[in-house]
Amino acid sequence: MNKISLLGKTFDELKTIVSELGMPSFTAKQLSEWLYKKRAISFTEMSNISLKNRDSISEKYEVGRTLPVQVMESEDGTKKYLFKTEGGHFIETVYIPEDDRATLCVSSQVGCKMGCTFCMTGKQGFIAQLSPTEIMNQILSIPEAETLTNLVFMGMGEPFDNTLPMLRSLEILTSDYGYGWSPRRITVSSIGLIPDMKVFLEKTNCHLAISLHTPFSTDRLLLMPIEKTYPISKVIEELRKFDFSKQRRVSFEYILFEGINDTMRHAVELVKILKGIDCRVNLIRYHAIPEVDLKGSGTEKITFFRDYLTNNGVTSTIRRSRGEDIFAACGMLTTLEKEKG
Predict the structure, then answer these.
(1) What angle do CA 243, 225, 162 make, to 5 degrees?
(2) Which listed residue (105, 112, 119, 330) is catalytic?
């Protein structure tokens, strides 16, 4: 019999489990503390739960922690971890250390349905959803777990195409019974699936990042098929209904492709469509992927783009490129692993 993982269960779910096992309700609190605060890897460690109850729990349940099967380390300190999922597939998790922070880039799906032309994960197609267990395991099971200061859902997959497991993970991360993190330490990135984006904005206080990449609908459709269903104009229209002037932040991701979206025309239109939104534009250097005829813009063009946006009221930064020597672009390592098999 396959056992059910406790990792990724919310406090209410843990209460239901202990109730069904005929245990005192406080056992749920003990379990949540061992899972999320003390980060236990086995029931043996859970010393304040009676041996009888531990044995009873372990008949049907397991903790659910699994270690990465591979790690690649970049010259700049970035580490890409490869995890094997329950279905025998692979996902990537990237650890990015900086001077005063350590960020983990987490995956939400195996593969992706969205088919963005510049994305290696999109080339794989959709394979499977990740469970809350598999999402939380990425965060808990890297050696640097205790050092993390920030979390970004910018790995493999579209988070708003796997909303419930993602929201359960966010609950655990930000609740007193779980990690107790401030929502401001977490950013979820999406290409703009409007219904689930609204659910996220209404139910959490975490930051949001939208993959924009061009302000023109016809251009964006060539890069991102989702533009046909959820045009960026509609996404931005929805975002204008929310207040981002306080601690919560919305940002826009913008990969610059030479001759595609890096012209003055694009910069002018970007300022126009974002006017009045308290936001930031993150300009990103393109990580080339095989069999894709796109070339990243040069430093001079990226710098010009940043300066134009910032000087015209749209705060813009150039994101430092990390881990290029270890295939840090999501999907590269899992594709190599699949080809081995």
Answers:
(1) 60
(2) 330
